[in-house]
Design a protein that fits this description.
The chain is an alpha+beta fold. It has a single domain, classed as Endonuclease Chain A (Endonuclease, Chain A, 2-Layer Sandwich), CATH 3.30.870.10. It is built from six helices and nine strands, in the order E-H-E-E-E-H-E-H-H-E-E-E-E-H-H. The strands form two sheets. A seven-stranded mixed beta sheet has the order 1-9-8-7-2-5-6, with helices on both faces. A two-stranded antiparallel ribbon has the order 3-4. The longest helix is centred in the last third of the chain and has 15 residues, at 140-154.
């Protein structure tokens, strides 16, 4: 099953369906990363709190992004010890990363244009958000190919041949 999600459909599809569905692993890949807040009952909480809760549940979380986030993200990040000291969390910074995808347990994935920001994935009003489009898929072959690519990236295979290492703040290898 695959379905197209556009604009405001992205928030519930990704943040209310895919992310909560993760039981073993959650891979998040984005170019831009900001201090995203998401609905939790009647209030909004930092998305980093959601990730910390996933780690406490035993979910492995990999976060790959292209640029260093701002000070508000950093302040939130430092509030969650799970993001700093857990072997279940890893974060990679790659200035060449432009993909946007979120994968839960190798079973369901979002692949699209939305960054991990309020205007991209968040609960902004329809008049303040970015225009986004993506696919939510449960196609195991597609997800498998994507995970294979991301795993080789995660292990540093692309880093060795990258011709942008001179501007990379944190080479994998």
């Amino acid at each position: 099953m695959s379905k197209l999600v556009i604009n405001q459909e992205t928030y519930p599809a990704v943040l209310q369906e895919i992310v909560p569905a993760a039981r073993k692993l959650l891979w998040i890949v984005t170019a831009d990363l900001k201090d995203l807040h998401v609905g939790a009952g009647r209030k909004f909480v930092p998305f980093l709190q959601v990730l910390a809760e996933k780690i406490r549940e035993g979910v492995e979380v990999r976060l790959v992004h292209a640029k260093e986030p701002g000070p508000r993200f950093r302040a939130d990040f430092d509030r969650f010890p799970e993001l700093i000291g857990s072997d279940l969390f890893s974060r990679i910074l790659c200035p060449r990363m432009h993909m946007k995808c979120i994968i839960a347990d190798g079973r369901i994935a979002y692949i699209g244009s939305a960054n991990l920001t309020g205007a991209g994935l968040g609960a902004k009003s329809d008049h303040r958000r970015n225009f986004e489009a993506g696919i939510v898929t449960e196609d195991r072959a597609v997800i498998g190919q994507l995970m294979t690519f991301l795993d080789t990236f995660y292990l540093g295979d692309h880093c060795l041949k990258c011709q942008r290492r001179d501007v990379c703040p944190d080479p994998i290898v």
